[in-house]
From TrEMBL:
Protein family per UniProt: Belongs to the UDP-glucose/GDP-mannose dehydrogenase family.
SUPFAM superfamilies: 6-phosphogluconate dehydrogenase C-terminal domain-like, NAD(P)-binding Rossmann-fold domains, UDP-glucose/GDP-mannose dehydrogenase C-terminal domain
Any one Gene Ontology molecular-function term assigned to this protein's record: oxidoreductase activity, acting on the CH-CH group of donors, NAD or NADP as acceptor
Cross-referenced NCBIfam families: NDP-sugDHase
Entries under Pfam families matching the protein: UDPG_MGDP_dh, UDPG_MGDP_dh_C, UDPG_MGDP_dh_N
Superkingdom field: Bacteria
UniProt-listed GO biological process terms: polysaccharide biosynthetic process
Every UDP-glucose/GDP-mannose dehydrogenase C-terminal domain range: 349-442
Keywords: NAD, Oxidoreductase
Protein name, UniProt field: Nucleotide sugar dehydrogenase
Length: 449
C-alpha cells in the first residue's frame, strides 16, 4: 500500500491546520495490489466500496441482508448517477464482490466496518449490529490486516469491540494488525459534499496504525487528518453532530420567535449569515431526520449518564429536536381552527416524507411521526412523495403514496420535504397550506410553522 502524502498531526493552531489541509487537497496515493473488505453496504458502506473501486481498489462487500444484496445487484439503491454507473462497472468486472459470508474477510488486506448505529424508540443506543459486525471481523482477522471502524458510536467503542478482542485472540495491535477509527462523513443527496473533497479523520491505536489507516482512507479522500487515539476521533465525530444538533434546535427556536414577531425566519437567518465569521447558518424545518443528528448525540449522552456527568445544553437541544414534529402538528391544528375547520376527519396530505430533499430514505424522518400523530388525533392522512412508494407508521399502518394529487381534494397540505425537479404547482389549489420548510413559494397563501 503506497503512502498518502497528507497525514496531519494534531498539534498546531486551527488556521495552520486549515492551510495544511488545503495544501494537501491534491494529494492522492498510488494504487498498488490491495483488496478491501467492506462490512455493511448501507448508505455509508456502498459509497465507500465504490469510492475504493474508482481508485482501482477491488472490494468484497459483506452484508447480513440478502434483500440489500439483491437490491445492489439490480441497482435498486439510492445513489447519484455517477455512483450508479460505477456500481454497474464494479459488478460487471468483479471489482466488487457481494456476499453474506464474513469468512471471506480473511482473504483481504484491509477491512472497513460501516454498519448502522441507531437508537431505539427510547433513544437508547442500539449497538447490536455494530457488535455483531466487529465480532465477525475479529473472528476472521489475520496478521497483516488494517482494520478501520467508521460507524459513529460512544467513546471507547473501537477499543472495546476491536482492539481488546483482537488481543484476546492473540493478535497484537501494531505488531500483527493495525486498528483505527475514521468516522464517516457521508452526506446523502448533497452533490457538493463528495467523499473525494471531504477531509477525513483518522485515530490509530499507535502511530503505525494511524499511518496505515491514513493510507487506506487516502483512497477515498484527498485530505486525511490524524489524531492521537481512536477515542479522540470518536469524540470529534460526536462533537460534529452535537454541534449541528444544537444549532438546528436553535434555528427552530429562532423560527418560533420570528413567528411571534411577525418576521420571516429565512430572511433573518440569511441576513445573519452575511457575517463572514462566527456564524453558521442553520435553517428551521419540521424536524431533524436521518441517520446521524437525531441519533449520534444520544450515544454521548448515554455514556455520560453512566458517570453522572451533566450535559444540559446537549440534553435540552435533543429534547427540543424530539418535540419539533409535535409542534408542527399543533400548528396544523391551529391553522385548521383559524379557518373554521377541525383536525378530526380532516383530509391532510403531507408533501414529502423522506428525511431530506433528493433522497429516498425514511429513517429518522419527522414526517413519519407527524403522520402518526395526525392519524392518532383523528385526521385522514395521506402523503405525496414520488421518491417513496410506501410509508409504514410506528403502529404498523402502511400508507401508499398518492400518485397524482389534486390540491382541491385536501383540507390541508403540510409541506415537509420538497424534492428537486418535482412539480408542486397543484398545491396552490389546496385551501390551506402549512409550510414546515419555510421556503415553499408555490402557494402564495401558505402559512409557516
Amino acid at each position: 500500500m503506497a503512502g498518502l502524502e497528507l497525514a496531519l498531526a494534531v498539534n498546531g493552531p486551527l488556521d495552520d491546520v486549515r492551510s495544511r489541509l488545503i495544501q494537501g487537497a491534491a494529494a492522492a496515493p498510488d494504487t498498488e495490489a490491495l483488496s478491501v473488505g467492506i462490512v455493511g453496504l448501507g448508505y455509508v458502506g456502498l459509497p465507500t466500496a465504490l469510492g475504493l473501486y474508482a481508485r482501482g481498489v477491488p472490494g468484497i462487500g459483506v452484508d447480513v441482508s440478502a434483500e440489500r444484496l439483491a437490491a445492489i445487484r439490480t441497482g435498486a439503491v439510492d445513489l447519484p448517477d455517477d455512483d450508479r454507473t460505477t456500481l454497474s462497472a464494479a459488478l460487471a468486472d468483479g471489482g466488487l464482490r457481494l456476499t453474506r459470508d464474513p469468512a471471506l474477510l480473511s482473504d483481504v488486506d484491509a477491512v472497513v466496518v460501516c454498519v448502522p448505529t441507531p437508537v431505539d424508540r427510547h433513544r437508547v443506543p442500539d449497538t447490536s449490529a455494530l457488535r455483531a459486525a466487529c465480532a465477525a471481523v475479529v473472528e476472521h482477522a489475520r496478521a497483516g490486516q488494517t482494520i478501520v471502524l467508521t460507524s459513529t458510536s460512544y467513546v471507547g467503542t473501537t477499543r472495546e469491540m476491536l482492539i481488546e478482542p483482537l488481543r484476546d485472540r492473540g493478535l497484537e495491535v501494531d505488531r500483527d494488525v493495525c486498528v483505527a477509527f475514521s468516522p464517516e462523513r457521508i452526506d446523502p443527496g448533497v452533490p457538493a459534499h463528495r467523499q473525494r473533497e471531504t477531509p477525513r479523520l483518522v485515530g490509530g491505536e499507535t502511530p503505525r496504525c494511524a499511518e496505515r489507516a491514513a493510507r487506506l482512507i487516502g483512497y477515498l479522500t484527498d485530505a486525511v487528518y490524524t489524531v492521537s487515539t481512536p477515542e479522540a476521533a470518536e469524540l470529534a465525530k460526536l462533537y460534529e453532530n452535537v454541534y449541528r444538533a444544537v444549532n438546528l434546535a436553535l434555528a427552530n427556536e429562532i423560527a418560533d420567535i420570528c413567528g411571534n414577531l411577525a418576521l420571516d425566519p429565512i430572511e433573518v437567518t440569511s441576513a445573519a449569515a452575511t457575517k463572514p465569521y462566527g456564524f453558521l447558518a442553520c435553517f428551521p424545518g419540521p424536524g431533524v431526520g436521518g441517520h446521524c443528528i437525531p441519533c449520534d448525540p444520544h450515544y454521548l449522552l448515554w455514556q455520560l449518564r453512566t458517570s453522572a456527568h451533566p450535559a444540559p445544553l446537549i440534553e435540552q437541544a435533543m429534547t427540543a429536536i424530539a418535540a419539533r414534529p409535535r409542534r408542527v402538528v399543533t400548528r396544523a391544528v391551529e391553522l385548521l381552527a383559524e379557518t373554521g375547520g377541525a383536525l378530526r376527519g380532516a383530509r391532510i396530505l403531507v408533501i414529502g416524507v423522506s428525511y431530506k430533499p433528493g433522497v429516498r430514505d425514511l429513517r429518522g424522518s419527522s414526517a413519519v411521526e407527524i403522520l402518526a400523530e395526525l392519524a392518532r388525533r383523528g385526521a385522514d392522512v395521506h402523503y405525496y412523495d414520488p421518491l417513496v412508494a410506501e410509508c409504514v407508521l410506528p403502529d404498523g399502518t402502511r400508507l401508499r403514496g398518492e400518485r397524482a394529487p389534486h390540491g382541491g381534494d385536501w383540507d390541508l397540505a403540510l409541506v415537509h420535504t420538497v424534492h428537486p425537479g418535482v412539480e408542486y404547482g397543484w398545491a396552490a389549489d389546496c385551501p390551506r397550506v402549512l409550510d414546515a420548510t419555510y421556503r415553499f413559494d408555490v402557494a402564495s397563501h401558505r402559512q409557516i410553522v
